[in-house]
């Protein structure tokens, strides 16, 4: 980030017409702003990064496409100062490829890392390389090398030739976005690297303290920000900073190549990576990589080699003075969050109910309802899976939050231990899962997929949002995309210990049978002191076939019973006739203890997830309200897919 932010200052200064002092001030302000954003842990920074990347790719593709159509003239390239001068610039140019290694700092959060991590890193090198080639092709074919060398904003000048002033402005805006994105990622990853080194006793643990309120590694972020501000303020040239950054990365990469060979030869029992260099390329690739890194280092200027050498020597001295005698520790994540094994269930259940638990006051009620669903499928060896998720902001590594948040981990373990104890009383098979993730909703969906769950049951406080989320940031993605039955429960004043008299809103919606099945499951589990009523509300007037509203309502109830497969269940039919259906339903609901209603929507939409009527009942009724829907099988729209990707 130290060399990116001065570059950002230059772009902003160019747009504003500022001199060197203005450029430095702009860089300092942006450095302070980005440090503050990461310090406070703004949740939207991850989505913002995705938006910036998509915008940049779009700008580059437009630049390349329009540039190619303009017919660039390509001649033979003959460097004015010879090829050795070109080789001498490799150290500076190399910095433009730096960044792919940052992906490794998020390795603990990547799904299927043995496959996705190598692919992501390879793509992060190959994709920019192809784009760089395209940009060079268009740039050198549009303007002369001499004109490009004289320009402070060469790509913008090329865009001016191709697209006019608008093109130049677009490229400058793109450059600003690129530097903001890269600098932010650098600050964010630096905190994670600090944690990893502190965990292995290479750096002092003081840096890894997590803020009580913001849940971010504020000391590591502050230290990174202060170093960045100092380097900008003392006026170290952007070229020098870039080359020093390249020097340090090349040293790191050279050591990585050696480490690959050492690990292959030592073959430690505890190290068994899924991804390996193909045998036909080993050890040629790591040897050539090491030699290439050293060759580039030797091409760099003396001042860069001197500064880089001082940093390397300081690191060596630090290791021998501080870190050498301190034992390296293994990751604490698995040990910290792994739940104690339970003999209640062995993971071979054929019918699985996932229950996220977070509130000790509602945990038992939700487990009781999940157990009722499981007991209805005893022939399938049913089990309940209790899940608790600790959410961690983007600025904090998952392992870091667990290591320094003993209270949250203890609460998580207490919740899951309580679930195990309660499961014995319910006589239901139970497994527990402790999860650490960025987003609770996404984590629950991952558990559903991994467990191949048949049903997910969530608690709801009973209020809808009028802003970004409909039912809540955790509930919305689960209800909208769960590939299994989804049940949302708003507990009444008495909780869910006694379901009492149950009412099912019997409609013609696609998910009414699911609600009816939930109601029968609860009624069977209660065994006594309960009743089941199927309610249908009709407006006055006969239909086209001349059937009265009463007859229409009873026909709908009978059809629902058959579709839901609950013919053997004892129930009462009730048909109400009224103009105001919603008010009638809410009035009738007050006569019962538990209300079950099916979703009236078939998929996730922007205004409602279960539909307006079910959510209104859930929000306004003071009884226990159960909203249910079947599996979400509809294809995800392009819009929803893009939104989900940007929010992940």
UniProtKB/TrEMBL annotation:
A Pfam family this chain is assigned to: Usp
GO MF assignments: L-amino acid transmembrane transporter activity
Matches recorded under Gene3D superfamilies: Amino acid/polyamine transporter I, HUPs
InterPro entries assigned to the protein according to its UniProt record, in alphabetical order: AA/rel_permease1, AminoAcid_Transporter, Rossmann-like_a/b/a_fold, UspA
Keywords recorded for this protein, A-Z: Membrane, Transmembrane, Transmembrane helix
Location of the UspA domain: 352-490, 502-629
Places the protein is found: Membrane
Membrane topology classification: Multi-pass membrane protein
Transmembrane feature ranges: 12-39, 51-71, 83-107, 119-145, 165-191, 220-238, 244-263, 275-297, 303-322
GO cellular component assignments: membrane
Keyword Transmembrane carried by entry: yes
Coiled-coil regions listed: none
Top-level taxon of the source organism: Archaea
Name of this protein: Putative cationic amino acid transport protein
């Amino acid at each position: 980030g130290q060399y990116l932010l001065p570059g950002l200052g230059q772009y902003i200064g160019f747009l504003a017409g500022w001199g060197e002092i203005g450029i430095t001030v702009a860089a300092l302000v942006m450095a302070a702003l980005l440090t503050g954003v990461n310090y406070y842990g703004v949740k939207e920074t991850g989505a913002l990064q995705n938006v910036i990347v998509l915008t940049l790719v779009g700008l580059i593709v437009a630049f390349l496409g329009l540039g190619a159509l303009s017919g660039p003239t390509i001649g033979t390239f003959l460097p004015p100062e010879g090829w050795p001068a070109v080789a001498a610039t490799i150290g500076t140019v190399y910095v433009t490829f730096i960044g792919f290694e940052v992906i490794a700092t998020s390795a603990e959060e990547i799904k299927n890392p043995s496959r996705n991590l190598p692919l992501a890193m390879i793509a992060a090198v190959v994709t920019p390389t192809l784009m760089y080639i395209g940009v060079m092709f268009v740039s050198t074919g549009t303007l002369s090398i001499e004109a490009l060398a004289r320009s402070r904003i060469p790509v913008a000048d090329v865009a001016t030739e191709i697209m006019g002033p608008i093109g130049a402005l677009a490229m400058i805006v793109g450059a600003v976005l690129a530097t903001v994105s890269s600098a932010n990622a650098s600050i964010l990853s630096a905190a994670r690297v600090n944690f990893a080194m502190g965990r292995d006793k290479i750096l002092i643990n003081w840096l890894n303290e997590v803020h009580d309120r913001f849940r971010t590694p504020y000391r590591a972020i502050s230290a990174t920000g202060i170093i960045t501000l100092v380097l900008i303020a003392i006026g170290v040239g952007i070229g020098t900073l870039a080359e020093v950054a390249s020097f340090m990365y090349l040293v790191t990469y050279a050591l990585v190549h050696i480490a690959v060979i050492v690990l292959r030869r030592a073959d430690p029992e505890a190290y068994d990576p899924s991804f390996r260099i193909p045998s036909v390329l080993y050890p040629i690739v790591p040897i050539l990589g090491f030699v290439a890194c050293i060759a580039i280092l030797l091409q760099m200027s003396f001042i860069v080699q001197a500064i880089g050498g001082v940093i390397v020597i300081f690191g060596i001295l630090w290791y021998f003075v501080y870190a050498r005698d301190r034992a390296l520790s293994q990751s604490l994540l698995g040990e910290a969050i792994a739940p104690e094994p339970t003999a209640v269930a062995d993971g071979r259940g054929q019918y699985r109910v996932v229950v996220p638990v977070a509130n000790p006051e509602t945990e038992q009620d939700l487990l009781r309802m999940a157990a009722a669903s499981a007991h209805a499928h005893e022939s399938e060896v049913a089990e309940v899976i209790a899940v608790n998720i600790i959410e961690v902001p983007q600025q904090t590594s998952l392992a870091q939050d667990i290591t320094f948040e003993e209270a949250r981990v203890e609460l998580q373990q207490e919740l899951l231990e309580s679930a195990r104890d309660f499961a014995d009383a319910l006589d239901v098979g139970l497994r527990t899962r402790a999860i650490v993730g960025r987003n609770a909703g996404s984590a629950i969906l991952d558990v559903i997929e991994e467990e191949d769950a048949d049903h997910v049951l969530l608690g709801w406080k009973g209020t809808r949002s009028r802003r970004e989320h409909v039912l809540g940031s955790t509930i919305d993605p689960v209800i909208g995309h769960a590939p299994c039955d989804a049940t949302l429960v708003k507990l009444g004043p008495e909780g869910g210990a006694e379901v009492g008299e149950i009412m099912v809103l019997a409609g013609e919606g696609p998910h009414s049978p699911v609600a009816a099945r939930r109601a029968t499951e609860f009624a069977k589990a209660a065994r006594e002191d309960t009743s089941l009523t199927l309610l249908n509300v009709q407006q006055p007037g006969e239909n086209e076939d001349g059937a009265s509203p009463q007859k229409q309502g009873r026909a709908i109830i009978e059809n629902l019973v058959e579709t839901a497969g609950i013919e053997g269940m004892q129930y009462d039919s009730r048909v109400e006739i009224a103009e105001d259906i919603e008010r009638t339903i809410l009035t009738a609901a007050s006569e019962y203890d538990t209300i079950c209603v099916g979703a009236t929507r078939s998929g996730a939409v922007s205004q409602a997830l279960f539909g307006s009527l079910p959510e209104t009942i859930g929000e306004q009724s003071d009884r226990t309200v159960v909203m249910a829907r079947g599996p979400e099988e509809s294809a995800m729209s392009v819009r929803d897919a893009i939104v989900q990707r940007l929010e992940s």
